[in-house]
Amino acid sequence: xxxxxxxxxxxxxxxxxxxxxxxxxxxxxxxxxxxxxxxxxxxxxxxxxxxxxxxxxxxxxxxxxxxxxxxxxxxxxxxxxxxxxxxxxxxxxxxxxxxxxxxxxxxxxxxxxxxxxxxxxxxxxxxxxxxxxxxxxxxxxxxxxxxxxxxxxxxxxxxxxxxxxxxxxxxxxxxxxxxxxxxxxxxxxxxxxxxxxxxxxxxxxxxxxxxxxxxxxxxxxxxxxxxxxxxxxxxxxxxxxxxxxxxxxxxxx
Length: 253
Fold this sequence. Notes:
Blueprint: H1 13-17, H2 24-32, E1 40-41, E2 47-48, H3 51-67, H4 69-80, H5 84-113, E3 127-128, H6 129-136, H7 140-148, E4 155-156, E5 163-165, H8 167-181, H9 186-199, H10 202-236, H11 244-250
Antiparallel strand pairs: 1-2, 3-5, 4-5
């Protein structure tokens, strides 16, 4: 049988660690976690690695930016368990999550484009449920429903137990009301309200959305880079490039 040049040359843990600025302990941890294939041992018990381990490390580190550490670990473990199809399924699921995030961003952007300017509320900054419902032209029961859905977060008066809506809660109620009038469902409104809260207001949210878009783009590009590195590794692993299960499914009985 022909020798595999990927497994002939012996490398020390430091040879794998140094190019990536890692510690030798990190390399050992990656092996124990199943991120790297098991290393051979010298008669004295020292680990010895090969160029194949270096390619595996490259693949893992390329997968992390796009998929996260836990998912990248699961992908590499599946490869080393000889279940390449499972590894590819994990990659697919991660791409589905990215697509869902893109759709959420699109929905938030569409919702905000349809918003009317929210004028500064007249009168006291703090409202009780009755006056606020009357101001919005809705029933108090609707505000309570929005509260249960997490769209509005009033506090409770310590003495009376009544709901008290501060400026932020009034803002959220007004946004929810406008979006409901625009035909949005409560589950579609939730990410909009969450983003407004995180940004501190609708004006600041515009910058947040641009940053969100940039991060999704960077994540998508990182996934492409990770896929290329993973494909390089699969081609280097004997028998793993095409996935044995996939080949068996195509071959006639």
